[in-house]
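Subject: Sanity check before I submit

Could someone independently write out the structure tokens for this chain? I want to compare against mine line by line before I put it in a report. The sequence has 317 residues.
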Amino acid sequence: MALFGLFGKKEKETLDKGLEKSKQSFLTKLTRTIVGKSKVDDEVLDNLEEILISSDVGVETTLKIIDRIEARVSRDKVLGTNELNNVLKEEIEALLEENNIGITNDFNIEKKNGEPHVIMVVGVNGVGKTTTIGKLAHQFKSAGKSVVLGAADTFRAAAVDQLIIWAERAGVPIVEQGMNADPASVAFDTLQSAKASNADVVIIDTAGRLHNKVNLMNELSKIKRVMDKVVPGAPHEILLVLDGSTGQNAFEQAKQFSLSTEINALAITKLDGTAKGGVVIGISDQMKIPVKYIGVGEGMKDLQIFHKKEFVDSLFS
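---
Independent answer below. Compare away.
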């Protein structure tokens, strides 16, 4: 399917299905807005602004989109309401492209200087952090990469147990020291083990709590320092997992975590169970941190690389 390049037909179908609730909610509201109107006027634009905000796109990003459409209306003089959806899709795609905030790669991460690629995963409890790690491990393994997991969320016994279960499902080794172990010690042992086995990818789970940012910052900084001693430059990726179904709350979490550590990638989960898919657009635009993965289902392969064009196409077509 030429339109989607490396993004295959099956992946697109999964994405379409996962975003169905968000799409239907948006299109229903848009249809009500333009009924009986032939051209895009101020009233239509005001209503569109409300729709985008209620779809969790966020106020600032919504205003940017509306400004772009107003400029288009001014330029084209008469813009028919039948064209509005396509125009909206084009302007959101252009906005995301201009911000250069998507990573359209795959799971074929290459080692540098013979060292494993290290991903440290952060996020509050309940957002799907452990599930995301398990699915990532499966996807990397399916791409022919050897993966080692590190259970450095030692604050809750359940976190370690859950990661062990996911490691078994994905068929990858895990390094764990149980509850109350020193997270930095777990990270150290995981990287040592990964180097000894010549692994390609290491994924480190960390404690999911925000109630004391100073402690969180200190803990994450210590884990990073220890990892850097074993694999210089590690972690290469600090991935924040957010629950898309929480809408604007996910955006707040992103802001809070970005104050605690240097996030350089985002995974937004649970988009299939919500009508709040617009939050991906707002977070992408406002945080200037790449959304790298999106969760659009419960299956192992339903964690996808975020492709901006295909995402917008599924959400607004």
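---
OP: Matches mine. For the report I'm noting this point. The first strand starts at residue 117 and ends at 122.
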